[in-house]
Design a protein that fits this description.
mainly alpha; 107 residues; rod-shaped
Length: 107
């Protein structure tokens, strides 16, 4: 009888340990989106504010999950953001400048 109780206790302990490890293994998996976020974050080093926000948006919206680099027009957009920041543009003036700048960069 004691052996039966001992066997039941050991099997319950083993089952509990297996269940406790399963969620931990699932949490360690890195999704392609997380990898993309990490790559874009590394590329955005040194950018701040609106320039970084625009860069991250373009970088993360790239079609391929392995392609963390933005499209050529996105690079033009981020440089336009930088020029607008240098000129200290805001509001409608900034929006107009960015629209014109990105249109010229896409040609």
């Amino acid at each position: 009888m004691n052996k039966l109780i001992l066997a039941a206790a050991v099997s319950l302990f083993a089952a509990n340990a297996a269940l406790a490890q399963a969620p931990a293994a699932a949490e360690k998996k890195v999704t392609p989106q997380q990898e993309k976020m990490k790559a874009c974050n590394a590329e955005a080093k040194g950018k701040k504010g609106d320039e970084r926000k625009a860069f991250m948006k373009e970088c993360l919206s790239a079609k391929k999950s392995g392609d963390a680099k933005p499209a050529p027009s996105a690079k033009a957009g981020s440089s336009c953001e930088a020029m607008a920041a240098e000129k200290k543009l805001a509001g409608a003036a900034k929006a107009s400048f960015l629209k014109k700048c990105t249109a010229e960069g896409a040609k």
